[in-house]
Design goal:
heterotrimer; A: 878 residues; alpha/beta; Dimethylsulfoxide Reductase, domain 2; 6-stranded mixed beta sheet; 3-stranded parallel beta sheet; 25 helices; C: 355 residues; alpha+beta; Alpha-Beta Plaits; 4-stranded mixed beta sheet; 9 helices; 10 strands
Chain lengths: 878, 196, 355
């Protein structure tokens, strides 16, 4: 955190000064470790084992916050008899289909209360559905088992909540039933002992227990513990399950929805949270509404069926969707034409970035826009990225500086190796210079969901323009060119609401007008005060329901700037957080079931009996006047179905899910798998890596075999404080370049001795993808770890910022990386892979691919040789 | 040429501005302080004081969202520093945030459209309006090439001809227009750094 | 004019013994430099290295504000290259680097049981750490020290040495800067008056006066002040003199994310530093010490002083800096005579031009 979010880290330092204990778990000893109370070096890729060990510590020693767990989690729910755990299937849960690599969730379901008095009734898909359109929902659930739907990443659409549950599960409030979640969880994690943690993670039992003790002693009524993570937890083939493990632990300890608690994602770009909320993502529409799938969602009714009868705020999905459609297609969207729902293109599977790049390499994608992103350096497998770029018809790059992804046709390493030839690359490239943050106005959404408005300081120079300008005018020109078209496929463009006011010589569209459209407008023509005002009858608009309220009262709430020193610590009058300016999500959990603060010390939001409403330091993340003892009437839908003591209002049952009966592609509970590339065997199961792992089989994306002697070392990639991501915003600047002027790798003295590496000298690193060279920093901060049976594992640290452009240049770490992905979210595992390291510089020219091929041959890996021009199809079979 | 009192006055002024003179006549006989002040020192003024306006902004690097104050003089940015009003950052910035002025005023910034024709070995210039028109033509062409009415018998109404990557460094309003426009043209392979 | 030409720039009439101006405590540096009694309080930097995270925001903020040239540093100053010295690629303070963050990596073995975490002094039994001071990184003797401020890397074996026993890593970071000495040798030796004491008590080079003679460079006991190669003149930290005139803090202190660099009235900073030192020592950090805080040291105390966690040499700081102009009074007479001669010559030239 000190490395990549130094200014945010001031609060950690302040907490530390006030007595907080700071524990840093990281493969490397970083600038964060330097000021922490404890640094725990861990083998990269083993965090589920570590966190699972703490969960086991909690459950084995009755250290959970029992009252919180019983009331606010699904610990009491009874899992169906058909469920079989990884402990009994050597690393697989029940329902796995080895042919497809996908799970059938049927056996993960709870026994439901439907038909009260009955027992043993499992909520299988379609069973016990009690809602407005039971047949529709049943059909949706059946279709959801289709491979193309599973590949389309439907679960990410639950990013602001959980998937719908259609029946209340049976519960055992004593948590004694052998199949209740609490007991299932306890058995599942029983083998995650301190000794196993030591075997897998390389963390000594004493150190592990020190952490486990610190965390548990600092949780409960009077105290809370926070976990902070970044892409070190997400860049894995089990990334989603990393977060799940932390969520289970924090729920058991009562650390969710409370001040000083939570699981805090530190995101790495100014508005990466915003670009997820208002998604430039293939599988999402604004506000985590799913992109409609061709198989499931041919009508608005189909689209909303699964949620239309659900409990929780997803039950209003139709109102959010219709408001979005009205924002986009205005008067053209009517009840009669399904509010133009059919205008939205349909997805049919995985259309995520890496899959699309593979299609580019195969010559299937003519046009590509790169907008402030530099995949030739910043994405896994840079060589694959560049082969993709070289096989486009045209490429539009919008950036501030010349980047490797724009100049690849002359700066790509593959030009030197002869795999690409400039004159033979047919890609037409338009470099369209962009405006900086100071040259345009608009909102960023920061890592805590806070929208902050930026004012424009100066005009952008020359041809530089905002992306708002670019897309507005591109849309305008497209619509002008299509004017008069009778082709039905052009109607979505021609009917689009695209009449934003503009200003100035550069004819800049009004960002504030766009923000107001995102907020939504009611039948009275006034900005909505929030999504609770949205209707499904076409009378309201709203481009992103969770952002509704950012323009409440016709005021740009994101531009509120009451100085922090004039506010309390919540600082609610600075910017605006979604939803409804709530700063801590699920904060009703900061009070006990009766609505009283768990402790005076940790009071945050509570029920004010006299006033008949929730109150506190924050905006309550709960219906303001719903009493804590409220019991929803039978059949109540949406938020009306949430009880007064159910804080997790986006979930179908209002509970935190220790066990996830649906929503995850790789199991209802997290379990330790080795990374795709690992030097050791899985110490827990016969199943080595995530069985649902996603791969792209092609010569440019060969994998290092597990436990291979040819690629014996583990490496991890990361950022340095002095640089930013793929480098365009830092390697181009003198003052930052000089602070970290060269690409380097960090190795321990032991590894340096083993491989003959000199501090300050050159080293070549080799994987099945490529070989790169870097300067060497020999440092005790990199430590070998001892695992099961005394096996010593060396880890290499590689900052990934470098490329061919800019003031500070060097090889790209990501050229070493292959593409293997988490099945839930299609995120690549580039926090861990294996390699070899040798002293000296890498071969040049054509000798480089030959050198890499030699390693592949020795490791028994298929050839990775690419034809000149780099156009190949993805292989159908491994 | 006459040398009246004006000329003598100038001499006096000149002498007063001369450190050694002040040193020997003032309370700073060692010439280490008040007497040593040069003309430039006497005229020193902070760029923050002479700015025409100060604009409140947000740092463009990571997602902490530190407040920035941008000082503008003659329509040029003369300083960017932390905004002490921000309850997030309390006026502080990291090295990258502190380099924001360099980012905006960088001499290596590309400020004109650059065009690389197919198979070309160098960049060439292109007028912005022409480039926009050419891009629009290519979008329509690629959209047509990649168009699919159905996939596996199911209506999809989409194009597989246009892909896009980026958004995490952009404004919400920009992401919104991108998703809206791409969806209307039928493009679905829309991704950004959040996936990466 | 004869007054000018004949006056000794000497010291009689100031009402103070000469020596007090050149070493030892000096309660009012600005007043001593001729500023009116209502001059601002002396300001300074207190750099608390125990909370430094080595982010180098100070280096960048300084360069942005002062529009310094890109440095090539690394000690060689002729190319931008990795230094190989931990994360320090600036190398040293110089004409183009007025802040420099030092990175010191230390490793040593420690006794079992493991060093405690938490706040030593508050949890007896675990807070008191028994640490061997067996320094493995270098041979400099080092006092035993607890690890309260520092992360611990715990491992029972060392594949490199085959040793068993836990090892502790410490990564010290410290942002160095011009010390703005109470007795500033650079200022004292400057023959042109380019270096001067500001009303804030800081020491600043006046670029419009400096002629690049370079006398100040060897005079500085800390090796701070430096000539710019292509320019010849000397440059160093001004404590953002221009910003001070606008009521702002220096750029580095403004940016510093963890308040490792604190700016303020020197008296107040002294009190703050004393309190911080007491806190740390109360927590068992026996090696914590203040550097440049003592007005009885060889430079009369520093305007920029530090809280260190180890010996000054570890951070590249001289252990006992002494103002190089202790013996200046005798030297000064010669310099003054020279200066008077220059004055005379210039005036003559001026007069000579009269028609």
């Amino acid at each position: 955190m000190a490395e990549c979010h130094p200014v945010g880290f001031q609060w950690v330092m302040e907490a530390k000064a006030r007595g907080a204990k700071v524990i840093h778990i990281d493969p490397r000893f970083t600038r964060t470790s330097a000021v922490s109370d404890v640094h725990v070096p861990i083998r990269v890729g083993t965090d589920i084992a570590f966190l699972g060990g703490i969960i086991n510590h909690v459950l084995s020693n009755d250290l959970d916050f029992r009252e919180y767990v019983v009331a606010y989690t699904n610990a009491a729910a009874i899992v169906g008899e058909d469920f079989v755990d990884t402990e009994d299937l050597d690393g697989l849960f029940s329902g796995f289909d080895p042919e497809t690599g996908h799970y059938d969730e049927a056996s993960w379901q709870f026994e439901s209360q439907v038909g009260s008095g009955e027992t043993g009734h499992t909520d299988r898909p379609g069973d016990g559905v009690d809602q407005d359109d039971p047949a529709g929902a049943q059909e949706q659930e059946r279709l959801a088992q289709d491979e193309s739907v599973k590949e389309a990443d439907p679960h990410q659409a639950f990013g602001s909540g959980g998937p719908p549950l259609h029946a209340k599960p049976l519960r055992d409030e004593t948590l004694q039933h052998p199949r209740c979640v609490f007991q299932v969880l306890k058995r599942h994690f029983a083998r995650y002992t301190p000794e196993i943690v030591a075997d897998i993670c390389g963390v000594e039992p004493e150190v592990f227990l020190e952490v486990a003790t610190a965390v548990t002693e600092n949780s409960g009524r009077e105290r809370t513990t926070a976990w902070v993570y970044s892409v070190g937890w997400t860049h894995h083939t089990v990334g989603a399950q990393y977060i799940r493990t932390a969520a289970i632990l924090q729920s058991l300890l009562g650390n969710m929805g409370r001040p000083g608690g939570g699981i805090l994602a530190l995101r790495g770009h100014a508005s990466i949270q915003g670009s997820t909320d208002v998604p430039t993502l293939f599988n999402l529409l604004p506000g985590y509404l799913p992109m409609p799938h061709a198989l499931q969602h041919q009508s608005l009714d189909d689209y909303c069926a699964e949620n239309s009868g659900a409990i929780g705020f997803w039950g209003n999905m139709r109102a959010y969707t219709v408001s979005l459609l009205k924002s986009w297609w205005g008067d053209a969207a009517t009840a009669e034409n399904d509010y133009c729902f059919g205008y939205i293109p349909k997805i049919t599977g995985d259309h995520s970035s890496y899959r699309t790049i593979a299609d580019m390499v195969a010559g299937k994608v003519p046009g590509y826009f790169l907008v402030g992103e530099n995949p030739a350096v910043g994405h896994a497998n840079g060589r694959m990225q560049r082969f993709g770029l070289a096989n486009l018809d045209w490429l539009v790059v919008r950036d501030l500086q010349m980047i490797e992804s724009a100049s690849f046709w002359k700066t790509a390493p593959e030009i030197e190796t002869g795999e690409l030839v400039t004159e033979e690359i047919g890609t037409e490239v338009f470099y369209m210079p962009a405006a900086t943050h100071a040259e345009k106005e608009g909102t960023f959404t920061n890592t805590q969901r806070l929208l902050q408005w930026r004012h424009q300081a100066v005009q952008p120079p020359g041809d530089c323009r905002s992306d708002l300008w670019f897309y507005f005018h591109l849309g305008r020109i497209l619509r002008e060119k299509l004017a008069g078209s009778t082709d039905p496929r052009d109607r979505p463009l021609l009917d689009l609401t695209w009449d934003y006011p503009t200003h100035g010589e550069q004819v800049e569209p009004s960002a504030e007008a766009v923000l107001r459209e995102i907020n939504g407008v009611g039948p009275d023509g006034r900005a909505l005060s929030g999504y609770m005002d949205m209707k499904d009858d076409g009378s309201t608009t709203g481009g992103c329901w969770i952002y509704s309220g950012v323009y409440a009262d016709e005021v740009n709430q994101a531009d509120r700037r009451r100085p922090g020193r004039e506010q309390d610590y919540v600082a609610a009058e600075w910017g605006w957080a979604w939803p409804y300016n709530r700063r801590t999500l699920y904060n009703r959990a900061s009070a006990d079931p009766a609505g009283k603060p768990w402790s005076e010390r940790k009071k945050y939001v509570w029920w004010d009996e006299a006033a008949g409403r929730w109150t506190g330091d924050d905006v309550p993340d709960f219906e303001a006047t719903k009493r804590p003892d409220h019991v929803p009437p039978p059949g109540a839908k949406a938020q009306a179905g949430i009880g007064g003591a159910d804080p997790f209002i986006m979930q179908g049952d209002g509970k935190a899910w220790l066990f996830a009966p649906k929503g995850l592609a790789d199991g209802p509970m997290p379990t330790h798998y080795e990374p795709a590339e690992s030097p050791v065997e899985n110490a827990l199961y016969g199943v080595q890596a995530n069985p649902g792992i996603e791969e792209i089989q092609a010569p440019y994306n060969r994998g290092n075999p597990p436990t291979s002697d040819v690629y014996p070392y583990v490496f991890t990639t990361y950022r340095l404080t002095e640089h930013h991501t793929a480098g365009a915003m830092s390697r181009t600047l003198p003052y930052l370049s000089e602070l970290q002027p060269e690409f380097f790798v960090e190795v321990s003295p032991a590894l340096a001795t083993e491989r003959g590496l000199d501090n300050g000298g050159w080293a070549t690193l080799i994987s099945a993808r490529s070989a790169i060279e870097a300067r060497v920093l020999v440092t005790e901060r990199m430590r070998p770890l001892r695992l099961k049976g005394g096996r010593v594992v060396h880890q290499i640290g590689i900052p990934y910022h470098w490329g061919a452009e800019g003031l500070s240049t060097g090889d790209s770490a990501n050229d070493l990386m292959g593409v293997v992905m988490d099945p839930n979210v299609h995120i690549q595992e580039f926090k861990v892979a294996t390699c070899d390291i040798r002293p000296g510089r890498r071969p040049r020219g054509a000798a480089l691919p030959e050198y890499v091929e030699g390693f592949r041959r020795r490791a028994g890996v298929r050839s990775g040789t690419m034809p000149i021009g780099g156009r190949v199809a993805v292989e159908e079979t491994p | 040429m006459s040398h009246g009192s004006g000329s003598i006055g100038r001499v006096k002024t000149w002498l007063d501005s001369w450190p050694v003179f002040r040193q020997l006549t003032g309370p700073d006989p060692l010439g280490r302080g008040a007497a040593a002040r040069s003309k430039a020192t006497e005229q020193v003024v902070s760029r923050t004081a002479t700015a025409d306006r100060v604009v409140q902004s947000v740092c463009p690097y990571c997602a902490v969202g530190c407040g920035q104050r941008i000082f503008v003089k003659d329509e040029q940015i003369v300083q960017i520093e932390g905004d002490p009003d921000s309850p997030i950052s309390r006026g502080r910035l990291c090295p990258k945030g502190s380099a924001s002025k360099s980012l905006v005023t960088s001499p290596s910034r590309v400020t004109t459209v650059r065009y690389r024709a197919p198979h070309a070995t160098e960049w060439t210039d292109l007028d912005l309006d022409v480039a926009m028109d050419m891009i629009a033509d290519r979008v329509l062409d690629a959209r047509r090439k990649g168009w699919q009415d159905t996939d596996g018998g199911h209506p999809v109404n989409r194009t597989m001809g246009v892909a896009s990557l980026g958004g995490a460094t952009l404004d919400n309003e920009e992401n919104y227009l991108m998703k809206k426009l791409y969806s209307a043209m039928g493009a679905i392979q829309i991704e950004n750094q959040a996936r990466i | 004019m004869t007054t000018v030409s004949s006056a000794s720039p000497g010291l009689p009439g100031t009402g103070r013994p000469d020596g007090n101006r050149l070493f030892g405590p000096l309660p009012d540096v600005s007043g001593d430099a001729g500023y009116e009694p209502d001059h601002p309080a002396r300001v300074g930097f207190f750099t608390d290295t125990s909370v430094c995270i080595g982010c180098k925001a100070c280096e960048v903020a300084c360069k942005e504000w002062n529009t310094l040239p890109m440095d090539d540093a690394n000690g060689t100053r002729d190319q931008m290259a990795l230094s190989g010295m931990s994360y320090d690629n600036t190398g040293m303070l110089g004409a183009n680097s007025w802040r420099h963050v030092a990175f010191v990596e230390q490793v040593r073995t420690v006794d079992l049981p493991m060093p405690a975490v938490g706040l030593p002094g508050r949890s007896p039994g675990t807070g008191d750490v028994h640490a061997h001071d067996r320094v493995m990184a270098d041979d400099a003797p080092r006092a035993a020290q607890t690890s309260v401020l520092n992360a611990q890397s715990l491992s029972e074996f060392d594949p490199q040495t085959g040793q068993s026993g836990d090892r502790e890593i410490r990564w010290l970071m410290s942002s160095d800067v011009c010390k703005h000495c109470t007795h500033a040798a650079c200022l004292d030796v400057c023959p042109t008056g380019a270096l001067f004491r500001t009303e804030f008590g800081t020491v600043v080079v006046q670029g419009d006066i400096c002629n690049g003679c370079g006398y100040c460079v060897p005079a500085c006991p800390y090796g701070v002040i430096d000539q710019r190669k292509d320019d010849g003149r000397v440059f160093k930290c001004t404590m953002c003199y221009d910003r001070l005139t606008d009521g702002l803090q220096p750029a580095c202190a403004t940016a510093c994310p963890t308040q490792s660099i604190q700016f303020g009235d020197l008296d107040e900073l002294h009190a703050r530093a004393d309190a911080r030192l007491a806190t740390l020592q109360g927590q068992g950090v026996q090696t914590a010490r203040l550097y440049g805080r003592d007005e009885n040291d060889g430079v009369g105390g520093d305007g920029a002083f530090f809280l260190l966690l180890d010996e000054p040499e570890v951070y590249g700081l001289p252990p006992d800096p002494v103002v190089t102009t202790r013996d200046l009074p005798s030297m000064w007479k010669h310099a003054a005579a020279g200066a008077a001669m220059v004055v005379g010559v210039v005036l003559t030239a001026f007069v000579g031009r009269r028609p």
